[in-house]
Amino acid sequence: MPGTVNELERNAALQKAAEILKSADNILILTHKSPDGDTIGSAFGLCRALLKLGKKAKVICNDEFPKKFSYIFEGLESFDFEPGLIVASDVASTELMGEQLAPFSDKVGLCIDHHPSNGKYAAFTVLDPTAAATCEIMADIIPLLEVEYDKDIANCIYTGLATDTGCFRYSNTTSKTLRTAAAMVDYGADIATINKKLFETTSRARLELERMVLDTIEYYFDGRAAVITITNEMEEKTGVSDSDTDGLPSLPARIEGVEAGITLKEKKDGSYKISLRTGRTLNASKICATLGGGGHAAAAGCRVEGTLEEAKKAILDAVGEELAKIEGEGTT
């Protein structure tokens, strides 16, 4: 399915996924490390739907789920079982599972994802790169399970749609995304509470971190690229949780004239996680792929070993090469 919007192929894949899920029990659902709203929302949305079918299902992650998403998973019964089916939701590669979930990496029976960079590691993959979020795909699978939506499932799906589109501000938002979100409202999603919690509430620690990060801004290529840095020292000083850094990669991309917003986040092992946000002229996924990463056209990432200056040079060289190509095409 990558790179295509063929509805017949998409519908066939959705139907097969539903059949796989309906024929299984004891379903273990995997999410990616450093979990965001889409992997959490799609996984727990599916989990709640399977529980309504009378199946045993549970969601696990390499990392702790951020407290701000507690409304998604609170009240769910926890099961102990030997998995009959392992599902990965919004997980583009086995590397993104993390060390704790690594033992499951070669046992995934079904993967549901929207990342063009998906590695096709599962026995069967439902991949729709045109979807704004994996929750957009999951919203189409759940009815095929013959499960009726309720408020809890709607909250899950809406969360993934909202977080992966920047509350429907990003260029990946489509008419289908908005129709799906509207359907979740009809099913009872508490969008006022969710939007307040996710987009309008900031901890004091996060606010202090943001102040420190803004002081690191550097501009390159005549202001067409902006770089911010998040260090371990900053995180230690402010006492932020990992989820408190969500949204920071969008800061440099908001600056007028910036076509490439780059965030360098120091990791505990000394490497740097690079997040790239781009406008319509640059493909973030293509740029990050040159450094072993991937993602979406407007938002992608990679990891680089070495010092801060080495990591900065690596991503700036890749961005500069693409900017030069664009300039070259404009003069031919």
UniProtKB/TrEMBL annotation:
Domain DHHA1: 237-324
SUPFAM superfamilies: DHH phosphoesterases (SSF64182)
DDH domain boundaries: 26-160
GO MF annotation: an example: nucleic acid binding
Pfam families on file: DHH (PF01368), DHHA1 (PF02272)
UniProt name for this protein: Phosphoesterase RecJ domain-containing protein
